[in-house]
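Sanity check

After download, print the first record. It should look like this:
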Amino acid sequence: MYLFYCPDIEKNLTLPEEESVHCVRVLRYTTGDEILITDGRGTTYTARITNPHPKHCDFEIISSEKQQPHHDFHLHIAIAPTKNIERMEWAIEKCVEIGVNEITPLLCRFSERKQLRTDRLKKIILSAAKQSLTPYLPVLHELTPYDDFVKTQSILNQQCFIAHCYKDEKRLLKTEIEKGKDVLVLIGPEGDFSEKEVADALALGFSPVSLGNSRLRTETAAVVACHTAVLINE
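Expected structure tokens:
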């Protein structure tokens, strides 16, 4: 069954326009058909279509159920956007499918992409969440300066890691993650973090980690970090 998204379902029993188009014009659902809807905050609803309009499809709720998260920890990936935006889009899509909860694009010293439109990325997140039947919609933040971000995150009760390529002493991420604890992993740009950025993160309590013996592209590193954290917590 397809999963539809309706964030204000408690106030309005009408699918958003894009969801209505997909439901009525693409999938050809009609009056009386049952559909599955999520509010993006963990509740799924079984509903019946009452007015199959392609721009505002109305429905009535048959039942609802609060879903358990796919894992019992919070996973936050902070990644410097790639110069080729398609690679960034791919990384975000795969991280959502795997189980990321929060994504923050980082503006770093060596970032090649200084601006970022998040509207398309939010659509990719929504599509990936629906495809993987995820009732909790991951949060996407706006592009955030690196220095501002690490200062605010270091004081939170979470495991903070920075993955970099310098030949400093590092341990594998998979050996450092404590099961059940929230995880934040920083992923740098194509030119890596600057030495100062790494030093600043370490001074704030971040742990330096490696993702393996191979040097990974930015987008690959994000997916590997995400998958590692979820796998350890299975």
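If your output differs, re-run the checksum step. Summary of this record's structure: The chain has two domains: 3-66, 75-232.
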